[in-house]
Amino acid sequence: MNILFTSSGRRVALINYFKETFQKHNINGKIITADLKNNAPSAYFSDKHIIVPKISNPNYLEELFNICKQESIHLVIPLIDTELTLLSKNLNLFEEVGVKVLVSSVELNEIASDKRKTFQFFLENGIPTPKVYTNEELEEKAYTFPLLIKPLDGSSSKGVTKIYNEKELVFFREYIQNAMVQEYIEGTEYTVDVMVDFKGNIKTIVPRMRIETRAGEVSKGVTVKSNSIIRAVEKVVNSLPHPAGCLTLQCFKKSNGEITFIEINPRFGGGIPLSIQAGANFPLWTIQASKGEIFNVQDYSWQENLTMLRFDEAVFTERIQYAN
């Protein structure tokens, strides 16, 4: 079982959890990482690190395909949003040589990568979500402050801005490319990790209350066994077109108890180490699903009230040479 993590970057904790799973369950194999840079921290924790071009490069897909053949890769796990649709559109290329890609359907990835499509999906399936204002409604000023503005195709909370008045609204609509304006929601924010097999069967759902974030990624969080959130997330996942692997959903629990969804990310989220440490064995389940196992029994034995407080660590190396 050789696994290739693409766009591995700083995802050291996740890679280490997979390595521990290999050891604990006597799984023979290697962890290979691929990234644009040779100084990605993950390079120093994988068995082998390979430099690849940008995802936008026409040769990117061919490079991944060649890595899979050369390294006898069984499973590819993409770790950033921008390559999910590309890989989902080219699943056959990999499956023809026996490589499984942990990616959901093209339709799901297109829904997740465009915030307006995400809003439309929630709306059509009767799932509570913040109102998105049309250009006509904005021109007619049919809204109340505060508002939230963000890029339609944004990721990692980049460009997400709370708007308090008309002056800010005018400025940020021009400043943020592909801007979308929506209702601002008050409530407790949760990130929810979900594991499904390649048939969409749910293995577990782990709500994590966001205590503090940094650069769009949770830095402090706590696991919460909220039945209302779990049931709401189950409805969303069962409505999605052909989900597979790990999904990360974001929602708010409002003061009246309503669960309001804002995002779908069909990949391992940055805060997944908390769910894994709590006992939700995403690495093992990922390997099992990739081998064709069907999740007939759900597992909610993970630990509640486990708190994660993240901090920076460093890798020191003389291996990298820089031009003077």
Automatic annotation (TrEMBL):
InterPro entries: ATP-dep_AA_Ligase, ATP-grasp, ATP-grasp_PylC-type, ATP_grasp_subdomain_1, PylC_N. Residues 119-293 form the ATP-grasp domain. Pfam families: ATP-grasp_3, PylC-like_N. It comes from the Bacteria. Keywords: ATP-binding, Ligase, Nucleotide-binding. The keyword Nucleotide-binding applies. PANTHER family: ATP-GRASP ENZYME FSQD (PTHR43585:SF2), FUMIPYRROLE BIOSYNTHESIS PROTEIN C (PTHR43585). This is ATP-grasp domain-containing protein. It comes from Metabacillus herbersteinensis.
